[in-house]
Amino acid sequence: MKKIKAVSLYEMERLIRSVRFYVLLSYSFIGSLISIRMRNVMHFIEKKYVSSYILEGVYIGFPIIIMILAMDLISCEYENRHAELIFSKPLRKMEFVLGKICATIILFMLNVALSAIFILLYMYFICFETQDLITLFSTFISIVWGSIIPLSITVLINALLINTVGTFAASLIAWYILDLAVTLINPSNILYNWLPNVAYRQILADKHATAALTPIIYIVVACLIAVYMLRKRDIH
Amino acid sequence: MSAIIAENLTKKFGETLVLSKVNLKIDLGESYGILGPNGAGKSTLIRLLLGLLKPSSGYVKIYGLDMKREEEKVKALSKIGYIPENPSFPLQFNAFKLLCFYGRLYGLGESGLKERIIEILRVVNLKDKMSVKIGHYSRGMLKRLAIAQALLSNPEIIIMDEPTSGVSLDGVLAFKKYIKEKMNQGITIFLSTNDLEEASELCSRVGILSNGRIIGEWEYGKSGESLRDFYIRVMNIEKD
Q: Least CA distance to A13: which residue of chain B?
């Protein structure tokens, strides 16, 4: 656990010092603001609590946000030749991968949480209700939990390709091919619920039975394959 | 027990044979050097010893631990400090934070870690620069940082790939002094170099590597022949 924590701290430091993190953070804030200004917020109150609606609206593209955050999760250490020194230390490949994943999820959570706080503060002056806080929290959990599925896909592709740009492109293509595929598959098929695009939509729709299990299966499978690939790979 | 054993170690990159059936047996507390021209396979040999590369055939054991198995490799690596030839660090970090990360990977406790880092940075003369971003370091400073991270965990084996290339003279002298102190304490040294003087000064046994094969082995005080003469003789035979 200590080494997973060490890798997580290292990865968080690396990401926090990257421009990408602040671009995503700005997107969240600006997106929240535009979302609030563009909607007639009072209009939606009867349908749904507004704060969660806005947060959901901003993060509707969260598979892409998490892909951008994780696109060089593993490859950066190989491309910049840091892997040589990291793996000359007593570190298991599984600890390395898990530490990196934890850091990405924490930073993504931070990103969403800051947006949620921003929205909540803004709402406070418009039409704040206690229920807003509760629904916003459940939306926050849904977004973070749902993000684990596209994160798993990105981790897997990154470990296979060891290429940052290639990972982003391949993850995006894979995601949209699956999106296209699910529209063609019969929804009554039992496998349908396990497709990543469907699963993350269900998580957002608060279908908790599927939501609890699917991301765990995705991340476990992605980790195991990524570790297997890294063990086979030479470090130059 | 031997500190390092390599048996029939062979490495191919595609069809290119880089290392061919290398055998090594380095005892505890011994200082062993590998000497050879550029492209002889010295860095590949070191990466195989560290388990960074998978051998095409043969095996490496460190303290009897098989470097092919991850659990055993992790145990072995906890006793090793490695100085790469061209160290590459994340440039956005400063030396202190990076050494904290490496120290945690070695399982060093948080309590003594800060003191240990400051102590080791003092040895390599980087203490005053420990808060400066690594991106602002010169090549010599990067090399000294590489030395610092290798010595951080008080390793029982130090594996060095041309450790003093690009380091200023005072840095080289300080490093050699520190290594000699460590050798007197019984630490095992594996040094790869193409500097004859450095090899004869620091190593009691030197293998000559050429075209991926060890073509001769020189031992301090054994035949009366200097390392320089031995190297020239062996390389001439290899050329013929």
A: B93
